[in-house]
Input
Amino acid sequence: MAPRLRLLFPLVLVLALGVSACGGGGGGSQDAKSLVNTAFKHSIKSANVNLNLQAQLQGVQQLNGPISLKVNGGYQSSGSGKLPKFDLTANVLGGGQSLPLAARSTGDDVFIELRGTWYELGKAAVAQLNQQLAQQSQQNKTKKLSALGISPLSWLTNAKNEGDTTIGGTKVTHVSADLDVGKLLADLNTVISKANVSGATKPAQITPQQQAEIQKYVKNPHIDIYVAKADQTLRRLAATIEITVPKDQQAKVKGLSGGTIQFSIEFTNVGQPITVSAPSGAQPLSSLVSSLGAITGGGSSSSGGGSSSSGGSSSSGPSSKQFQDYAKCIQQAGGNNTAALQKCAKILSK
Output
């Protein structure tokens, strides 16, 4: 992907991470912003989360169909400085190919599933990770986004209270707003300048020229935020970024002429505890490499021409038609129907 095209994706990432971390009335713009501010001051200790990232890009020959990331499942905080519990399923779709996977955390161990096989990170590794998280939690105990020079609420312009609706059976207030891309990019540069990247090269900041290009390509950036009326917690955040590239600039971005990037994250069953059990028969994480090779059709296994450990699938991986059938099945299933998603996954193992 061309460097200029890659510059568009930090918009979505900063939106997802920065706005969701900011610390969400009715009536005017200030009242709507105050409601959003209140919502993000309320942490969500447990919930079912449904995340959806979709990108429809026109003119790029390498991309066949939409790019999407869907994540669904429950999570529950284990307290400050410790890995949360979660039980998530995900699907990554791009270029006509799809990769389904799942992940579980019991708080003291982590498991990843690919094509029906579970792999275990191990309790010793997770204990070390929890120790690192505890240390970071102490170091960042008083650190806030404002201390980093980030002000997500300043990204919102023309904020409006759109009235009440329902999300997942919960009554919510809908706030809509436009995004000030210039302020968002300025905050992104601030984060980069203060990044602690010990042992690695610090990412390059976005230059004024690049900022001007992004602002020129991005049209009508919009965000919708839904806040529960009962407890004023965030229940849904959705953003849309439209891209339009002038004809004389399209060659610089691999022929991209335009498109739409959509991001949404929704929380349901907020405050309800979850139970996560370790899957049986999980293999060591070290054996995951061979499975990844099988999924991508990336050559023979180290066992030299024998069948893979997952049973009937060959080392060449799923066929192109299987991927196409799977992609259609995923789109029809949607992000919330776990049973349907599991049936779709069987297409890849036929």
